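CO-FOLDING WORKSHEET

Operator: S.A.
Ligand of interest: 2-acetamido-2-deoxy-beta-D-glucopyranose
Run index: 239
Mode: holo prediction, single chain
Checklist:
[x] sequence pasted
[x] SMILES validated
[ ] output reviewed
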Amino acid sequence: MAFSSEFRTKTMKNFPYTLLPVTEKSSKESTRTTKTILSIITTLFLVILLSCSIFIIMALWLGPQTPVVKLNSLSVTNFTVSNTKLAANWVATFTVYNPSLAMKLSLDNIVSAVLFKENNALAIASVEGFGMDSRGENRVQMEFSTTGYEGDQPIVEYPVLREIEEDNKRRGTVRFSMIMNMRTTYKSAGYNWVAWTRRFVMNSYCLDLNVGVVKGNGSFIGGGSRQCEVILMLADDHE
Ligand SMILES: *[C@@H]1O[C@H](CO)[C@@H](O)[C@H](O)[C@H]1NC(C)=O
Ligand SMILES: *[C@@H]1O[C@H](CO)[C@@H](O)[C@H](O)[C@H]1NC(C)=O
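OUTPUT RECEIVED:
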């Protein structure tokens, strides 16, 4: 037995929610379908347009992505500690990677220090700056040298000298850290219609580097490379 449309409508009035009328003409339905498809296409188009705009805006204005710094190796030679001074040479190699899709960057005024643990500077070195393309990678080598007497190297105080010796005797390793400070300039790459420059101060921290020192020589224990922490701060001087 088929329900009459009147019976249906009446029945449906009892429902607490509204349903679409069942007796619409088919031509109206197809118009509705076309409208729905059109609105879906329009929505999709708008969503894509919006996403692209957001991506470009993010990439250019908000997204100078922090460079990735990895320590590949650290070795020390002629490491000698006495009650009055510390003398040693360090060689560290790093890989710096620029993950930005839309930005080139240059790193300048690079100053690096080797520390005992996290806060006792043992030696300082500066390195030539360099530029990087978007998604570019650079290898950097840093050499530190101190005889304990140079005026441009940190003075290591007796308590620290003693702690280094004790650590080395007890564990056969010395725990170093390396920090780097530099100026970082981001420039929009390949988008000549929006010239964009931002300057940052960048600090990189590579902590907990245990170096096994035997007869004054040694290298970073654990092998492989170590990712360093990188912090970017907007520099005061804008262009
Ligand atoms: C380390 O010391 C040895 C002798 O004690 C010397 O021949 C060598 O040149 C020194 N190496 C460095 C890198 O200073
Ligand atoms: C430590 O390394 C230096 C430089 O490579 C070398 O001249 C020296 O003979 C080494 N010392 C020892 C004890 O192996």
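REVIEW:
Residues 107 and 218 are 30 Å apart (CA to CA).
Residues 26-62 form the longest helix (37 residues).
[x] output reviewed
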